[in-house]
Write a structure and sequence with these properties.
Length: 121
C-alpha cells in the first residue's frame, strides 16, 4: 500500500529552524516527484516546493524561495524540507504529496496526513 508519512513538526520561536521529513513506502521512490504544501487555518492548501527523484529538478514558490530547502535521500526513501528563518506567518499544517508527473503540480495525487508547525513570536 502506498503511503507518505510526515514528521518533524512542532513549535519553534520566530527566526528558528525546523526540518520536516516525508518518508514514502509502497512507491518506486526513484520514479516519483514529492512536494511540500501547507494549509493555513481556514484556507486552502498552498504548494511550496517539489523535488523530482526522476531528474533531480526542484521548484520553489516565491513565498519560500531562499528560506526553505528541499532535498531527497533515496537510501531512506525520504524527502526533507529544511525551513530556516521561520516567521509566525509560517504557522500551518504542512503536508507532503507525491505523483509520477511534475507537470501535475500542484495537483499531486498521493497525500500524507500532515504535521503541524507553529512559530511563536
Amino acid at each position: 500500500e502506498a503511503r507518505l508519512m510526515e514528521s518533524g513538526g512542532g513549535v519553534v520561536q520566530s527566526g528558528g529552524s525546523l526540518r520536516l521529513s516525508c518518508t514514502a513506502s509502497g512507491f518506486p521512490f526513484e520514479s516519483i516527484v514529492i512536494g511540500w504544501f501547507r494549509q493555513f487555518a481556514g484556507k486552502g492548501r498552498e504548494g511550496l516546493t517539489y523535488i523530482s527523484n526522476i531528474d533531480g529538478s526542484t521548484y520553489y514558490s516565491e513565498d519560500v524561495k531562499g528560506r526553505f530547502t528541499i532535498s531527497s535521500d533515496s537510501a531512506k526513501n525520504t524527502v526533507y524540507l529544511q525551513m530556516d528563518n521561520l516567521e509566525p506567518e509560517d504557522t500551518a499544517v504542512y503536508y507532503c504529496a507525491a505523483d509520477k508527473l511534475k507537470t501535475r503540480w500542484p495537483f499531486f495525487i498521493f497525500w500524507g496526513q500532515g504535521t503541524q508547525v507553529t512559530v511563536s513570536s
